[in-house]
Amino acid sequence: MGEDDEAAANKAVKSFCTAQLYFRAISTELQRWRQQTQLQTEKLQQELQLTELAKATKKGTPYAAAYAFLSTTAAHRLNDALRIGEQIAKTTATAEALLARRLGEISAFTKTTTELATGYTTAHSANQLTGGAIVNSGNGIGCTITLTHKAANSVACKDSSGDRTAAQSIGKYLATATKLKLATADQLKLKTTTISVHGAGALSTGNQAKTTSDGKACEQNAVATATAADATAAFGLSKLSYTVEHPSGELNIDKLTQANGVTQGNSNTDPQAELLTKDKDVAKAIKAAQTANKQLPKTLSDTTIADLASTKEAQLLAAWLKDPKATKLKLETSSEKVAQAIFGEKQGSIKEKFLDPRAKDSHAIPTDGDAITGSTQKLAEDNFEQAMAYYTAQELKKAAEA
Questions:
Q1: How many CB atoms sit inside 10 A of residue 32's CB?
Q2: Of residues 374, 313, 393, the one with CA closest to residue 68
Q3: What's the distance, Cα to Cα, between the start and end of the chain in Å?
Q4: What is the percentage of the chain residues whose pLDDT exceeds 70?
Q5: What is the torsional sign of CA 116, 118, 121, 126?
Q6: Continuous segment of H or E residues that includes residue 140
Q7: Which distant-in-sequence residues (6+ apart) come within 8 Å of 207 by Cβ?
Q8: Does residue 239 sit in helix, strand or coil?
Q9: In terms of Cα–Cα distance, which of 67, 108, 169 is closest to 377?
Q10: CA distance 259 to 256
Q11: Sign of dihedral through CA atoms 100, 102, 108, 114?
């Protein structure tokens, strides 16, 4: 699995637009892990109920050992899936929350820097100064410049279709990804701002400080000039420059989760509130989700008789069936003989041999009204508790009469 493919997805993240697609792809993949686990768990639960009921209906028949073994296997697999599912649900939810927070931080940063760099109006206000860093002879001209920024609630997406597709592909590589382009906290800070001030003419004292009528400059004049361009002794803001750069740093998941880190001391005794999500916290959340995303147990429908016959549990059951009173067991090493002892078959699909037939049989369970009828599979799906109670009662009755 390709580091090259992972790197290609990372390389495609060049703007907020592709970053948003990238983050969403990761979130979608984390959700898929949860959904996949839930779906598999539901299938295993259904198989457990089917084999439990089949075991109850087949007691005392040649199929008893097979269904007893299948129900035990189904129970173990379901428990394993539930444990995995619990961890996946917990870790993916945490990872999604931190990813959403980091994307929100990038969004806020992008909005702020875009508003700083573009779309502002200026208003100048002149006044006489009697003190200050550049006041000579006791007075000078002061100029208060107010910038009003326009809201930047969206950005134009100019990324190529190739970059958009590549950025979204990160989901396919998330399970083993070691580097993710989630920006680093130290990138989410304002850069250097460049302010250009233009002036013309000679300025002396501030006793004739005026603001040009268009509000675009401060001047020294008995009467305010109509426009800044017409002023002969004036100065004002020409341009505010701020370079907008998308925060595109990579987080090295392995390094950040392995590093012990050093807690920085703070001389300030006041409580501190973190403004940004820590890179290490994001990396740990991703790593925890990757670790939790383990291979789920197979369903019995995807299992063969040979698969089960090769297990230690099957060998033990075959030995117990062969000699129930033995004080020391000799395990059968031949999988075919183990399979024959338990399943009455040497090979074949569990689904075809033992699950599908239970959709074709029929049962009738008496009640105080109409009887509950249906195949083992149907009863397991719709009336599992009642069916199990009925067959348990039948066994108890037999035991009492024996």
A1: 13
A2: 313
A3: 63
A4: 94
A5: positive
A6: strand 140-149
A7: 128, 139
A8: strand
A9: 67
A10: 5
A11: negative
Burial of 133 (0-12, 13-18, 19+ CB in 10 A): exposed
* Nearest residue to 224 via CA among 216, 249, 7, 267: 216
Tens of pLDDT, residues 353-390: 999 999 999 999 999 999 999 999 999 999 999 999 99
Helical pair 16-57 and 64-117, crossing angle rounded to 10 deg:
170
Query: How many residues are there in the chain?
Result: 402
Q: Name the token pair of 335.
A: 């999988």
* Residues 6+ away with beta carbon under 8 Å from 298: 77
Among residues 48, 41, 47, the alpha carbon closest in space to that of 297 is found at 41
Confidence of residue 286 (pLDDT cuts 50, 70, 90): very high
Return the structure tokens found at 41.
């768990």
> Up-side HSE of residue 295: CA atoms within 13 Å toward CB?
3
Is there a contact between 218 and 234 (Cβ–Cβ < 8 Å)? Answer: yes
Q: What 3 state SS string does 340-366 have? A: HHHHCCCCCEHHHHHHHHHHCCCEEEC
C-alpha distances (whole Å) from 302 to each of 38, 146, 294, 313 are: 17, 71, 18, 19
**Is 194 in a helix, a strand, or coil?**
strand
Structure tokens at 237: 């803001």
Exposure string of 381-402, with b = 16+ CB inside 10 Å and e = fewer, is eebbeebbebbeeeeeeeeeee
Note the pLDDT tens digit of each residue in 77-87: 999 999 999 99
In the structure encoding, which two tokens stand for residue 340, read together? 């024959």
Residue type, 93: A
pLDDT digit string, tens, across residues 136-183: 666 788 899 998 888 889 989 998 999 999 999 999 999 999 999 999
What is the rounded (10 degree) CA torsion for 357, 360, 366, 372?
Answer: 120
Task: Report pLDDT for 2.
Answer: 44
3-class DSSP assignment, residue 322: helix
